[in-house]
Amino acid sequence: MKQLEIVIQNPTGLHARPAKIFVNLAKQYQSDIRVFHGEKKANAKSLISMLTLGVQSGSGIRIEVEGEDEDAAIVAIEEAIAGGLGEEELIEQVATETETAQGEEKPIKGKQAQNESDAPLPENMIQGIAGAPGIAIGPIYHLKRTEIKVEETFESESEEKNQLQEAIEKAKGQVMRLHAQMLAQNASSEAAIFDVHLELLDDVELLDAVLEKINQKQSAAFAWQTTIDARAEMVAGLDDPLLAARAADLHDVGYRVLRILVGVDGPAIRFPDHPVIVVADDLSPSDTVSLDRDKVLGFCTASGGPTAHTAIIARALSLPAIVSAGERILTLGDGPTVILNGDTGLLTLDPTEDEIAQAKSLQQAGQKLRHEAQQKATDPAVTVDGHRVEIVANIGGVAGAQDAMKSGAEGVGLLRTEFLFLERISPPTEEEQFAVYRDIAKTMQGLPIIVRTLDVGGDKPLPYIKMPEEANPFLGVRGIRLCMARPEILREQIRAVLRATKYGKLRIMFPMVSDLSEWHEARALVEEVRAELGTDPVEMGIMIEVPSAAVMADVFAEHVDFFSVGTNDLTQYTLAMDRMHPQLAGKSDGLHPAVLRLINTTVQAAHKAGKWVGVCGELGADPEAVPILVGLGVDELSVTVPAIPTVKAQVRVLKYEEAQILAKKALSCGTASEVRELV
Which residues are catalytic? Predict the structure, then answer.
């Protein structure tokens, strides 16, 4: 047996995401791995077990590893913890701030706010905690959640266990869809919240506990509910508020599976047909992502906290929020107008005309830049010296297309079609796909739409496509490789897309192409289907995500109609850094000169052949990357819908000649940090 004693330096301790990385690392080894903190012991392969340790920053833990690969496991774990479990840069930042502060007299921060909080608030005001910035004014609406009644009725042990497994698999599909929805918002950090939910659904100790209760003649639903409630209570009782907030994630996952087990159909929450400010005891991360932005102006919860996943998602969605406002808000009736200030955490009830006027003034001031950008959202993005850059949208459905049109998108640069394939137990039919592509085409009113063919595998498995276990799925059968291995799925998708070209300007793009033979094979399939349908030719291109495709861009350019650079994967493969790796994730930066050089190579090759290049990864909306990408000659930036007006506004204040000079300097830098300092 090997032992290790080590101190956790992560600023927020072993909260959900570093704990998830720890658990995933432990699962790679056959050995038993146990973690001790004080009087508590945890199974290192169970996320729930790890969270119940309540490990805070600066706490020491002891790790015991016993088994055939114990030597390798203990070394890997020590390196991962020393590397920050995915938070290396945050640890370094805190260390730097601490060093800078040593010996200096600490200023009294927030003195005015403290004095104000000491004074009693007017009767019509409730002080909560600022959850997400912004001001909202509107009527109160209490969240109405679908009630679930659980019976202990027991059919048979095998039947209950089958129902449980099916419910968990279906829940995984739903969570993957939420994950994809956050990625479509270019909110990869927030999408990782749902990675944690997937980990909870795979928790070995949780499943074992439920199965044991089924063995004792409890129904799957009753066993699941009582087990989740017990585990959530344990996590909620932790001294660390950040870790205790993870109880909401457990309840979220539990409620999702429970709804499936008892056969509750329809939406989990219901909203009126007019804009409101939602009031609730708490919201789950899933609730928050699912809020209808046309009807929800903001929300206020009685419990929760600013570090809870609900608040994190609200910030990513630019949805004003107050948390931990107390139970008084639950006694308020539906209908009265309130002012919700997500900057100060203050909820004003039945505001006077003066208070409303003041709130509107603050609201307008806070939104001024966004409003100015939005007002010109439909104007083209042209630099001061006349260089045009097209700004288009990354979307994942018809609703995304509708929002894109409102936000001034000049087309769709990336339609993530995997949203059609997730949250289901079988592939979508051709007719189902056709209907969606047709509706998106109609919504975009003739503007170009790039349809990326199914991009799954790697970190995005599908429950109904059984693939063999891969040592490294990111280097395995994913993207175009998976589609060509299952040509019946790709053929149906291509048929649906080609049929939809009657209603709009659709283009086809293939992901993860690394070799010219893959392109020829995919193109041949499209031409074969096109001949069967008798449709007109369609533009086809590839994503530049693999370094080999970028290096061979001059060869590909002779065959494809366009390129679109997927900077997320291109960065990962170029730097050989998994974005979820415990030690390397913080260093994975798309502004690394190596990545920029590959983008430059792609642009130069494309333009020489008379082809155009877009960027559809997160880098396209990064304010520090935009001037460099423009300077490199990228023709199109495809970004999340909310970012469209601001990216356009940024391009309009650039000078193309200056951007070219900046880009040339960036290519000569040695590190990503040097590039960012240069900008």
Answer: 309, 616
